[in-house]
Automatic annotation (TrEMBL):
Protein name: Integral membrane protein
Compositional bias per record (Basic residues), positions renumbered to this chain: 301-312, 322-332
Signal sequence bounds: 1-19
Biased composition annotated in UniProt, kind: Low complexity: 271-281
Top-level taxon in the UniProt lineage: Bacteria
Organism: Streptomyces smaragdinus
Sequence segments annotated as region (Disordered): 271-345
NCBIfam families registered for this protein in UniProt: DMT_1
Transmembrane spans: 70-90, 97-118, 130-147, 154-174, 186-206, 213-234, 240-262
Keywords: Membrane, Signal, Transmembrane, Transmembrane helix
Length: 345
């Protein structure tokens, strides 16, 4: 098998492993409301860690056989794999809009990274590695501080997803450096720091934001950061000159539109279900209750004593015979004075 096909196959399996890990991480995050250390007690979280580790090993192997510009675009298929995995394993089906947005992200990102790396790349120098490592740690630290001030919101999740994607992208950059020079201590140390940091940041990003939007953001930021470092620090460039740069910009707009659609679907509140046993609306003309134990302003049913009392008829008489006779005697008219005087004469 040629190195190109081997790198392609390893990248596809790595993307599938990352997708399965993302589904498990989102499920653990949605079922866990305790502090950040609570997922450590979950078997699902450790399964996600195993899948992330397997994906990382496959990713390293793919980088050994292929270039960064080939391997990183295939990582965009993670979100495409995650939707059917979530539908089959978790029963969470994605709508047509989510599928369209996911394909937009993957297609736009594939176009962007397929236009990079046409020139011969060179390894990063020692000074470049130090600068890139310092910039990575500082940038991720700023993103974490910003996310902590946002509380539990969609913006917080997306900020953490950006940080996680940047961490994974830089881990790929230093992994590529290790494949070229396995004795580089700085690259090995950065991989040891960035790999677990990316897992924890992605776990925090899935909390309260679902699967689609954080995963799309992470999947977009990861290869974009790696490609940017490749262009700046490794001498890579866009293919086809200005036309390639324009195509990359258009593809970036398509990718951003896909992320926006996924984010809007995650942030839109679900319709509230109809409440069972709700208090019916007050009928017009009903007398509000004001007795003890009753809520003022709401009509209530009559008490049992009132229910046993016969209803009043249209003529003002009550229902029982004794009460009708009593009221009839009370309402009998008195004799007129003129008629009484005529009978006396």
């Amino acid at each position: 098998m040629s190195p190109f096909l081997l790198a392609l196959l390893l990248s596809l399996i790595s993307a599938a492993a990352y997708a399965g890990a993302a589904v498990l991480q989102e499920r653990v995050a949605s079922n866990t409301r305790a502090p950040a250390v609570a997922p450590l007690r979950s078997s699902g979280w450790w399964a996600a860690v195993g899948l992330n580790g397997s994906g990382a090993v496959l990713h390293v192997a793919a980088l050994a056989y292929g270039s960064l510009s080939l391997v990183q675009p295939l990582g965009a298929l993670t979100i495409v794999f995650a939707l059917p995995i979530a539908a089959i394993c978790v029963g969470r089906r994605a709508g047509r809009a989510a599928w369209t947005a996911a394909l937009m992200c993957a297609a736009g990102l594939a176009v962007i990274l397929s236009l990079t790396g046409s020139g011969p790349a060179h390894p990063m120098t020692g000074d470049s590695k130090v600068f890139v490592a310092a910039a990575t740690l500082a940038g991720v630290g700023v993103l974490i501080l910003v996310a902590r001030r946002m509380g539990l919101s969609a913006a917080r999740s997306l900020t953490l997803a950006v940080a996680s994607g940047a961490v994974f992208g830089m881990a790929s950059v230093f992994t590529k450096a290790v494949t070229e020079d396995a004795s580089d201590p700085l690259s090995l140390a950065m991989i040891a720091v960035l790999a677990p940091a990316g897992v924890f940041l992605s776990q925090a990003a899935y909390r309260g934001a679902g699967l689609a939007a954080p995963l799309a953001t992470l999947t977009v930021v990861n290869p974009v950061v790696a490609a940017a470092v490749g262009i700046v620090a490794m001498g890579e460039s866009f293919r086809y000159g200005a036309a390639g740069a324009l195509g990359a910009v258009l593809a970036a707009l398509i990718t951003a539109a896909g992320v926006f659609v996924l984010t809007a679907q995650t942030a839109s509140p679900a319709p509230a279900p109809a409440a069972t046993g709700a208090v019916p609306a007050q009928r017009q003309g009903a007398r509000p209750c004001s007795g003890p134990g009753r809520v003022p302003g709401l009509p209530h049913a009559r008490s049992r004593r009132d229910q046993r009392r016969p209803p009043r008829t249209a003529h003002g008489l009550l229902g029982t015979g004794r009460q009708r006779r009593r009221i009839a005697v009370r309402k009998r008219p008195a004799p007129e004075p003129a008629a009484a005087a005529g009978r006396g004469t």
